């Protein structure tokens, strides 16, 4: 187990800056999610940590030691990539034990550790099967066991669950988190799925065009994104744009949205509000110093299971408001309404 530190790492492929001055700490024993759109540099950062590629500049330390001159196989890293090919002709146990065999671990010890790994991923009794005799989820567990069995200091997972269907993916997310907690290995996983990152990670780093945009806990990033990109990347959000004034943000239509109590955030040209923070009411809510209230005009509600995403025209903007289906009966499908939210829930954003 070890902390990984990346400092000022840049790497270009021709004119493409795959990584642009990235500095990030991956704390010891934590599950860290790297999130970003396709091509933002996530895989490249994993490959730099693993040692498959060397950065043009910057440094990487694992457990406090610089690894510039340490080859891949000496970095004590466990890996599971998107196309985690198992050896088709080997049994599950032989697949898992392969890395130990290469390291010349004695056969009794090897057997014991493979048994432990099978227990950990809950595949007891399936060690004698061939990969084609397993389900997709079980194969994924074998790949994970294989990555962990050598007791690496760091575990790197590149889109580990993207090949699974939705239900299985959610099940494996829970499993992955349990296993990571149990072994306590510093883990970095790459995903382009914001929900997966928010569910799994202790901390998240968001990459865009090779640069780190923001890093923090899922809660922090979701509720306190620094800019428009991060806010929208982590979920639905309504953007109110205007002119920053001392008291609040002046919208083009004249309304003033008061600033939330965030020190030093009073000059941002955008306020973001998440749909689940907003309330629709037919009667005007009572004025209150902690409430933002705007007139709106109902557009159609959109059903999506237990909740409905309603559209309300507010200040020239088609706002999304999340409403429980049980509360939908009280809301008209057209006509004037009021939209309100707690001022503290407005998020000041850079463009
Ligand atoms: P992500 O994992 O976020 O999808 P990558 O790290 O794979 O992004 O890629 C970042 C950028 O670097 C992309 O523009 C990609 O096309 C480019 N890139 C990655 N690997 C190579 C390579 N081996 N040769 C040339 N360009 C590459």
Q: Uncertain regions: pLDDT < 50 for 5+ in a row?
A: none
Distance between the termini: 39 Å
Output the CATH homologous superfamily of the largest domain.
Answer: P-loop containing nucleotide triphosphate hydrolases
Q: Quaternary status of these chains? A: single chain
Order of helices and strands: EEEHEEEHHHEHEHEEHHEEEEEEEEHEE
Q: Helix count? A: 9
What is the number of strand segments?
20
Cα-atom radius of gyration: 25 Å
**Roughly how much helix do the residues carry, as a percent range?**
25-40%
CATH topology of the largest domain: Rossmann fold
> Could you tell me the strand content as a percent range?
35-45%
Provide the number of structural domains: 2
Ligand set: adenosine-5'-diphosphate
Q: What's the CATH class of the largest domain, please? A: Alpha Beta
Average pLDDT confidence is 92
Structural class: alpha+beta
Shape: elongated
CATH architectural type of the largest domain: 3-Layer(aba) Sandwich
Order of strands across the biggest sheet?
6-7-8-3-9-10
Largest sheet: 6 strands, mixed
Helix and strand arrangement:
Layout: E1 4-13, E2 16-26, E3 31-35, H1 42-50, E4 57-62, E5 65-66, E6 77-80, H2 92-102, H3 107-120, H4 136-148, E7 154-158, H5 166-183, E8 186-191, H6 194-200, E9 203-208, E10 211-216, H7 218-223, H8 228-233, E11 238-244, E12 248-251, E13 256-258, E14 270-273, E15 279-281, E16 291-304, E17 307-314, E18 317-324, H9 325-328, E19 335-342, E20 347-349
Parallel strand pairs: 3-8, 3-9, 6-7, 7-8
Antiparallel strand pairs: 1-2, 1-4, 4-5, 9-10, 11-12, 11-14, 12-13, 14-20, 15-19, 16-17, 16-19, 17-18
Helix pairs in contact: 2-3, 2-4, 3-4
This protein binds adenosine-5'-diphosphate.
Adenosine-5'-diphosphate is lined by residues 13, 16, 18, 36, 38-44.
């Amino acid at each position: 187990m070890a902390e990984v530190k990346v400092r000022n790492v840049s790497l270009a492929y021709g004119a493409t800056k795959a990584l642009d001055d990235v500095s990030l700490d991956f704390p010891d024993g934590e599950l860290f999610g790297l999130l970003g759109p396709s091509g933002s540099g996530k895989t490249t950062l994993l490959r730099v940590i693993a040692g498959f590629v060397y950065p043009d500049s910057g440094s990487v330390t694992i457990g406090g030691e610089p690894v510039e001159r340490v080859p891949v196989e000496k970095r004590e890293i466990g890996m599971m990539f998107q196309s985690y090919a198992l050896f088709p002709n080997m049994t599950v146990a032989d697949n898992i034990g392969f890395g130990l065999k290469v390291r010349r671990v004695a056969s009794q010890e090897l057997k014991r550790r493979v048994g432990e790994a099978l227990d950990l991923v809950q595949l007891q009794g399936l060690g004698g099967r061939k990969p084609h005799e397993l389900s997709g989820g079980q194969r994924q567990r074998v790949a994970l066991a294989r990555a962990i069995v050598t007791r690496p200091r760091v575990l790197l997972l590149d889109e580990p669950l993207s090949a699974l269907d939705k239900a299985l993916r959610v099940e494996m997310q829970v499993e992955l988190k349990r296993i990571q907690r149990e072994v306590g290995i510093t883990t970095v996983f790459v995903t382009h799925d914001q929900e997966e990152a928010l569910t799994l990670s202790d901390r998240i780093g968001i990459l865009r065009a090779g640069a780190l945009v923001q890093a923090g806990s899922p809660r922090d990033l979701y509720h306190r994104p620094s800019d428009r990109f991060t806010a929208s990347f982590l979920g639905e959000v309504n953007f109110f744009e205007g002119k920053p004034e001392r008291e609040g943000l002046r919208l083009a239509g004249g309304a003033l949205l008061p600033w939330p109590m965030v020190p030093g955030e009073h000059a941002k040209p955008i306020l973001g509000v998440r749909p689940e923070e907003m309330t629709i009411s037919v009667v005007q809510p009572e004025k209150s110093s902690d409430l933002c209230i705007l007139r709106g005009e109902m557009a159609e509600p959109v059903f999506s299971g237990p909740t409905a995403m309603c559209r309300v025209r507010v200040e020239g903007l088609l706002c999304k408001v999340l409403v429980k289906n049980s509360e939908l009966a009280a809301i008209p499908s057209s006509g004037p309404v009021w939209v309100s939210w707690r001022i503290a829930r407005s998020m000041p954003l850079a463009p």
